[in-house]
Specification:
The protein is built from 14 helices and 9 strands. The protein is α/β, with parallel strands linked by helices. It folds into 3 domains: 148 residues, Rossmann fold (3-Layer(aba) Sandwich); 35 residues, no CATH class; 84 residues. The strands form 3 sheets. Strands 2-5-8-1-9 form a 5-stranded parallel beta sheet, sandwiched between helices. The protein has a two-stranded antiparallel sheet with strand order 3-4. A two-stranded antiparallel ribbon has the order 6-7. The N and C termini lie far apart (62 Å). One of its GO terms (molecular function) is ATP hydrolysis activity. InterPro entries: AAA+_ATPase, ATPase_AAA_core, CbbQ/NirQ/NorQ/GpvN, P-loop_NTPase.
Length: 290
């Protein structure tokens, strides 16, 4: 199995991700570089909305790689994560088979490549081009899923009883995200490099807004980021994400506003706070009218 270098150095990571609109810090750039250099999965943990999923997308853009995403959820099983056979197609093939045909021959036919349905993990392993495999919100999957992930991520191969072992010819860059809704196993963590993401410092979030919202004035971006920081400090049910900060900036531009005063905050609060109780608390704490 070949391990291809995607980045030359941490500085290369930072520059190429920034060119695609994702601003990193030294810790992020270094960890991403080491994950690809060592051929290890990268486990990225942190609260919702801090850019974990977007990091995988940014790496894929920077490397012109195919992004394959496995969205985890309770009840996710091997058939949805690895592979399954097209049972309807198999049934039709059995019905269409000549009556004098032996079962073993029919069995070999219906459990062939033509009837195989790839799911994200198998698809990522079989690709020969640059690939980023995003295993998103792993903490939402059942504990049993981790055992399957361990097997796949340890050897980067999948055994299909009917077809044999499929081994990766080119190791994908694997990024696993978790919101820490439950603790992931130590066995999984041992196989990964670890990166914790939190909401960025105000100056970096301002730079993110300036990079992603052409035309916004630096002073307005400063006001916006300070206000978002205040809202996050209120311990609301759903703190505003970085993406929602960017959306708020775009909203202000769309409305032709060049200042984030109390009236502007009151009019547009629904862009960043998505629970009525959060909005009520913000209005009370910030002294907003309406």
């Amino acid at each position: 199995m070949t391990v291809h270098a995607l980045f030359a150095s941490p500085d290369d990571v930072a520059a190429r991700l920034a060119a695609g609109g994702y601003l990193t810090d030294e810790s992020i750039a270094t960890t991403v570089f080491l994950a690809q250099a060592l051929g290890k999965p990268l486990l990225v943990e942190g609260p919702a909305g801090v850019g974990k999923t977007e990091l995988a997308k940014a790496v894929a853009r920077a490397c012109e790689a195919e992004l394959i995403r496995l969205q985890c959820y309770e009840g996710l099983d091997e058939a949805r994560a690895l592979y399954e056979f097209n049972y309807k197609k198999q049934l039709l093939a059995i019905q269409a088979a000549p009556s004098d045909r032996g079962w073993e021959e029919t069995h070999d036919d219906i459990f062939s490549e033509d009837f195989l349905l790839e799911r994200p993990l198998l698809a990522a392993i079989r690709r020969t081009g640059p690939t980023v495999l995003l295993i998103d919100e792993a903490d939402k999957a059942d504990v049993e899923m981790e055992g399957m992930l361990l097997e796949v991520l340890s050897d980067f191969q999948v055994t299909i009883p009917e077809l044999g072992t499929v081994a990766a010819t080119r190791r994908p860059f694997v990024l696993i995200t978790s919101n820490a809704a439950r603790e992931l196993s130590e066995a999984l963590k041992r196989r990964c490099l670890y990166l914790h993401l939190d909401y960025p410092a105000a100056d970096r979030e301002r730079d993110i807004v300036l990079a992603q919202v052409p035309g916004i004035e630096a002073e307005l971006a400063e006001q916006l980021v300070r206000t978002v920081g205040t809202l996050r400090a209120l311990e609301v049910k759903k703190a505003p994400s970085i993406a929602e900060t960017v959306d708020w900036a775009r909203t202000l531009l769309a409305l032709g506003l060049d200042e984030l005063d109390e009236a502007a905050v009151a009019r547009t609060l629904g862009v960043v706070l998505k629970h009525v109780s959060d909005q009520e608390r913000a209005r009370k704490e910030l002294g907003l009218k309406g």
